[in-house]
Amino acid sequence: MTKTLIGKRVLRNEDPRLLTGQAQFVDDVEIPGLLHAAFLRSDHAHARLLGMDVSAARQRPGVVAVFTAEDMGDDWQPGPPLVSPPPTAKDVLFYSRRQVPLVKDKVRHAGEAMAVVIAESRYIAEDAVEDIVVDLEPLETVVDLEKALQPGSPLVHDDLESNLAAHLSQKKGDYETARRQADLVLKRRIVIDRGAAAAMENRGIVADWDEKSQHLTVWDTTQAPIPIRNGLAARLGLSENQVRVIAPFIGGGFGPKMMMFYAEEMVIPWAAMKLKRPIKWIEDRRENFYATTQERGQIHDVEIALSRDGHILGLKDVFLHDTGAYDPYGLTIPLNTQCHAMGGYDIKNYSTDVSVVFTNKTLVTPVRGAGRPQGIYIIERLLDIASKELGIDAVEIRKRNLIPADAFPYKHGIIDQAFSPLILDSGNYWPVMQKALEMIGYEKFVRDEQPRLRKEGRHVGIAITPFIESTGVGPYEGARVTVEASGRIHVATGVGTQGQGHFTSFAQVVAQQLGVAVSDVRIVSGDTAEFHWGTGTFASRGAVVAGNAIHAAASIVRRKVLELASKELQTPQDELELEGGMVRVADIPDKSISLGELAARANPLRGAVEPGTEPGLEATSYFGPRYGATAFGTHAMILEIDPETMMIEIKRYVTVEDCGTVLNPLILEGQIHGGVSLGIGNAYYEKLHFDENGQLLNASFADYLIPSATEMPRIEVGHMETRSPLNELGTKGVGEAGTIPVPALFAQAVENALADRELEILETPLSPNRLYELWSQKEAR
Amino acid sequence: MRIEGQYTFDGPREVLWELLQDPKVLAACLPGTQSLRQVGEHEYEGEIGVRVGPISGAFAGQLTVTNEVPPVSSTLTVEGKGKVGFLKGVGNIDMTEQGPGKTLMKYTGEVQIGGKVASVGQRLFDSVSRGMIEQALGKLNEMLKARVASR
Amino acid sequence: MRKLFDLALTVNGTRHEQAVEPRTLLSDFLRHDLGLTGTHVGCEHGVCGACTVLLDGEPVRSCLLFAVQAHGHSVTTVEGLGAIDQLHPVQEAFRQAHGVQCGFCTPGILTTVVAFLEGNPDPSEEEIREALSGNLCRCTGYQHIVDAVRLAAQTSKTAHEQPAR
Question: What is the pTM of this model?
Fold first, then answer.
């Protein structure tokens, strides 16, 4: 093996197809006889369904069928629970209520699907949806988290006593004692509101039931094709092998496409089997805002206890988490919040208590960050406030509390989203923060430039935010690596791909082991016919978990290659090299054999084989980490604000990322850039506005503002590498890192820029309007 | 959301009040009204076509008038629904004489909208509704002047 | 049965004649009637720009046009820019600069950029970002896209400077 491919800026294998419009996305699938679906969705957020008259819709020319909950009969079942509460946690209360295929008795959020029309075209289907007459009795809506828990509140789920969906308390050490010993105790209420993932591609599904071969093929914009296959088979009474789920090219996932058994995913395959015709449903953008999951709504009452010199003695957090109308995803998001509220700090006493609340709003499941941004926001805001109260520099107070390098693996003891005890595997935190400080020129800016700018009357602020990111969680993923007779390598893995470059980064891992060109490694991901064991792409785990499974499989194939080549070339293994698709004897380049030739010899058509030999040059391996690897990073920003318009200009944006071994720096940078853009959206431009009737008031890109090229700054990305001991490649995930610290960073920067008003920002998202309100409420000093 | 404003009419309060009791007058004034009929002493039903930004559609609705203190004030309750959403509103009108032949009408109301018209049109709803009201009251004023002139 | 319109237009240099419903969007006509699925639909509100194609060389939102409005005109989609084995220089620049992640917004950006660079062969970063402000991307944060446009402009400039030698 000569040059290393791990860590190389290799150009992406998949780009030529994507660039020329030749990549297949779900809506590009065409099947002869394809029918099209449109859903009737509720305008009301909370209402009793008294009746529905679909007769006019059924009679419209071009309409093949109209289905309601009643038509589904016994096949009508709510979705399966996706994540159970942690079996290892002690005080857990959990009421599982899952989304339904079509509304049967009660509408629980605006946009909930009530009926489906199947027609010759989407145009006709939408016309027919308007033919349906619905009798809904509007009910009082539950929208405010605190009011939802008050006695007498309307109930989202009538069979429960209240709108409490779940409750979980966790403890570490003894907060009350720590509090008594503190020199400073700060208490604050922090409010965080919802944002959407808003991938450019909306959801979609094509289901094709072949009656003759008794086989169901489903194309789905899902991040989890394998669980979808298994669940659909179970729901439809089929064997898993009768169902093939393909997640082709996906136009961005960001979390909501990991939610499984959306209403449409339950209805369309069922309808396809019923009608014995292929059916396609593609979500439109407005539906996406209502019917695709969202995240971030929480209200925190936090308390921090510190010593005079800024050491955090303890932290206490009591919070409410908005789960929307149903809670299929368990406690994943609040657990992440609980685990990230301590940041990368050495906090020995911690008490956290979450109440999950049902509301008449769209379901909440992870969106890039998945509860982590909220945790980081809490601790970073508290440290900023403490730094001001104690008169300790904002950087210094963090430095004093960061977990030292010799303390790893650092055991927190509380349970994380993967049901394991939270352990931070490795890290070297302060140097990462230091690097960020250097890159942005923190000291010089604060000492020289900022005072000068302030004298000129300009409002320029600087901020720095360290953070941790839990990544690479189990349970496991798998992969199969095969050398083909052509000499090309075929790799199949279960995780899907939504733009993060798996086709290339995974190919690098294999090419590294087998000495082939990256472009000669063909990766197939997200097709259950190719590989059917695994979970999906989420929690920044693709490269870590699937990557390591691929690495393991490729290593076994390498071993087989060397064993066979050694026999064929009659040379000891340690004198052989793999390079350029060939196995060569070192120093005798003519004595060689190609991988393709070896593969052919490993799969003879005649002759006897030795007992115990496996045919071909192939291996399947699985990887499951003992626990998730924790990455660390720091973002820093210089920001100017115009206090009259509250419009901002980001002058500099720096990130330093330590995610262990980097597979492809080009792809890594792309992930950071994209994550930061979502983070900036979360911090300053994006907020889902629900009114008191559960109506979403900004369900289009005209009113829900995601950053465009003119809002985004240039991002400078720095790296450090502290290997993870949890896997052979030493990698940690990084998919969500760009997003996590941004709201906290923003708040710090804005307070710093508008320092003459001494703002204390305890909410996110902000917006120019909101910031103006906060600014006006404060008298100038 | 809140809707409030005022309008000065060129005519006496009593005549204005008379006009407001006539469904044909209301139908003629409110832009987009396709039909309006009285179904009870204080109840009306009708259809109205509305355009709010990119969203346009018909609403079928009920209007109820209560708390009548002729010719001073009354409360109007509206409920409408259609393919593009639903609407609920309660409003009060209050009329005072402003000298001979002039009446000042003040109106305040709370409106809730839902469905497509809310999620895509909400931002524009305020100005659209104000525009509709201005147009309606302007037309009503013309009819008032005509009726006064004909007496 | 709705009344159909006899549509005739040129797409990527090929003439097409087809009877369509007047209400058929140009984006749907291209994608489903002609099978040119490279143009993507992200919002149907005209905001995200994923559906951008060139109408007589000018970028337009195909989701806001009826196919019949393109009658007698010439449309260029991403498929008309280049092929897998022969990428258009702008496509090649995107490859080099990693300006693609999920690829969904990409075709709309490519057509926008091709038209932009024609009128603006040597743009500043600010001008590039301004030109891209009508195309939303959720994956890349735009940085590598801006780099790709710069690279494309650079490459084209160099190519133009060479013939003199």
Answer: 0.94
